[in-house]
Amino acid sequence: MCCSKYSVCCCCSRQRPLVSRRLLHGLLGWVARRGHEESFVLVSLCVVVAAAAAAHAVGVSAALGAFLAGMVLGESDFRHHMESHLRPFRDVLSGVFFVTIGLQLDAAQILSAPLAVLAWLVVLVPVKILLQYAGLAGDAPVRPSMPGARA
């Protein structure tokens, strides 16, 4: 039987998600049984930061690592417990996210093509209004993806 580097790596990569999920579930269970809410929040945030750092070390976007950690945490048995305790962080960090996106705008590029910017505004603002009106006219209640995003 041939045991190449590829087969060993492939075997290890298949086992890694199972092992990491079990370790994470055990860690979260241990912290939850202790009853310290602050510790539970701290461990949850540390898992996300560690995943982001690991992804960055591998050469992938840190945001992707944090996203994947959030997906794994969201599938755990403690997701409801975690959601109730991390809601204040979500509200604050969503604002920080949009501020950082706004800071990445290149004002020189916007000022270099004012007619193109105006044309896009003239097209997109009425489309948004029409889509929002269509959503309000339907039977489904309008639920913004974030609190305060009713513009």
Question: What's the SSE blueprint?
Answer:
Blueprint: H1 5-34, H2 37-58, H3 62-74, H4 79-103, H5 107-112, H6 114-137
Helix pairs in contact: 2-3
Describe the protein.
There is one protein chain. With 151 residues, the protein is mainly α. The chain folds into two domains: 5-104, no CATH class; 107-151, no CATH class. The protein is 79% helix and 0% strand. The protein is built from six helices and no strands. It has helices at residues 5-34, 37-58, 62-74, 79-103, 107-112, 114-137. The longest helix is centred in the first third of the chain and has 30 residues, at 5-34.
What is the count of helical runs? Answer: 6
Q: State the shape.
A: elongated
- Give the helices and strands as they follow along the chain: HHHHHH
- The total beta strand count reads 0
Report, as a whole number of angstroms, the end-to-end distance: 64 Å
Structural class: mainly alpha
Helical content band: over 70%
Low-confidence spans: 1-15
Radius of gyration, whole Å: 22 Å
The largest β sheet comes out as: none
Q: What is the total number of structural domains?
A: 2
Oligomer: single chain
Could you give a short description of this structure?
This protein is mainly α.
